[in-house]
Amino acid sequence: MIQEPPFPADRLEALRAPFRETGAIWVQPPVLQPLSLVLDLAGEALRSRLFVLQAAAGQEVCLRPDFTTPVARLHLASGAAGGNYAYEGLVFRASEDEAEEVLQIGIERFAAASDRPADDAELVDLLWRAAKAGGRGDLSLRLGDAGLFGAFLDALGLHPAQASRLTRRVGRPSRLAAELERNGQAEDRSGAGEGVLSGRLAALPPGEASALLEEVWTLAGITPVGGRTATEIAARLVTRSDASRAPALSPGQVEAVRAYLSVSGPPRAALAQISGLASPAAALRAHLADWERRLDRIEAASAGAAPAVFDAAPPGDFAYYDGLVIEIVSEALGPARPVAVGGRYDSLPARLSGGSNGGGSALGGMIRPGRALVEVGQ
Predict the structure, then answer these.
(1) Cα–Cα distance between 46 and 42 in angstroms, integer?
(2) What is the pLDDT of residue 43?
(3) Residue 103 phi, psi (nearest 5)
(4) What is the Cα–Cα distance from 366 to 68, expressed in whole angstroms?
């Protein structure tokens, strides 16, 4: 396993300082994390980058790929309505050309209620100040919004199943492009084994659907891998079945989605461009109004001096972001190696708790010292 070199203590302290100023509680969650949970929350695209272990009892775990989910679990276990947690520790991701055991410093924040644009702007500024402390002079902000795409699709009048299908692919450009290339035509799987099974499962209550799937596995001699339960796999197959029966996108809707995904530029200009691509539905208007407030706050803080772009389709390894997405990138390192990343994930606590913690605010971000410190990462 490739490791990063030691970092000078004084340089690390400079990166920690903005996080210390928040008064956050410093935590250190477990290194071993349940594999199925990580895949469900972070997305299948991350699987190839995980270090997977199997316990003697057969349970599959992975080395911690990030801190967000582990810290969220610690917060939920505390029973507190709100929490402000900082961390510093190693994460583990397979890589061909970079260290696989890397240090992260970050923060995760949870609240029962929140002024989201104001809190988002505060997080952007915190990450910006921490990144600048590394000494790089070539940094810029890359902003996005994972929730804006859903509001845009709603404004276009897409069927909910089709909108959900496109939204799940927004962080995977090649798969989304393939979906649009089919010109929004619903997939015909009526003759495929998976389609027949999906249709049967969709017609059953969840408990009966998982029992049927386990029976199919037994008859076929299949042993599932990857840590997923029959209930989880059945739910995914039902979702696919629903999406395959959704009405096709019209050519105009396809072109509007493509135009949306191509938007990238100065934040206010980019958001104005998005506003002109769809009729002003209430959800879209609300998202755009929040962005005006968010940008006002960012521009009034130290991050206001940063060169910034808004990308309508920001990339990312983790599928749990559902609002603001932040990347701080270095011109020397390129966009594929961001110095700091973060965002909003309001739905994650509810997913972790089975729906009992919905409606709250959750956001956070981290910095990579190995990229932020100019002498090390250049």
Answers:
(1) 7
(2) 67
(3) -90, 135
(4) 9
For 100, phi and psi rounded to 5 degrees? -100, -10
**Following CA atoms 290, 296, 302, 307 in sequence, which dihedral angle do they give, to the nearest 10 degrees?**
80
Whole-angstrom Cα distance, residue 311 to residue 116?
A: 20
- Residues in CB range of 302: below 8 A, 6 or more apart: 125, 128, 129, 132
How many CB atoms within 10 Å of residue 6?
9
* Partners of residue 326 on adjacent β-strands: 143, 342
Question: Which of 84-93, 108-117, 334-343, 354-363 comes out lowest in average pLDDT?
Answer: 354-363
Token pair, residue 162, equals: 């089709």
For 179-203, write each residue's pLDDT tens digit.
Answer: 888 754 544 434 344 456 666 666 6
83 three-class SS: strand
Encode pLDDT of 86-126 as tens digits.
Answer: 999 999 988 877 888 999 999 999 999 889 999 999 999 99
Q: 121 is written with which tokens?
A: 């702007």
Q: What's the rounded Cα separation, in Å, for the pair 123 and 344? A: 10
Please list, residue by residue across 27-41, b when 16 or more beta carbons sit within 10 angstroms of its beta carbon and e when fewer do: bebeeebebbbbbbb
pLDDT digits (tens, 9 = 90+) for 15-65: 999 999 999 999 999 999 998 888 877 766 678 889 998 877 778 899 999
Q: Which domains, ranges and CATH numbers included, belong to the chain?
A: 9-151+257-377 (3.30.930.10), 193-244 (no CATH)
**Residues 63, 49 contacting (CB under 8 angstroms):** no
354 dihedral zone (left: phi>0; alpha: psi -120 to 50; beta): left
Type of residue found at 145: D
Cα 303–Cα 307–Cα 310 angle in degrees, nearest 5: 95
Please give the full DSSP string across 108-132, using - where no structure is assigned: EEEESS--HHHHHHHHHHHHHHHHH
Residue 232 CA to residue 373 CA, distance in Å, equals: 42
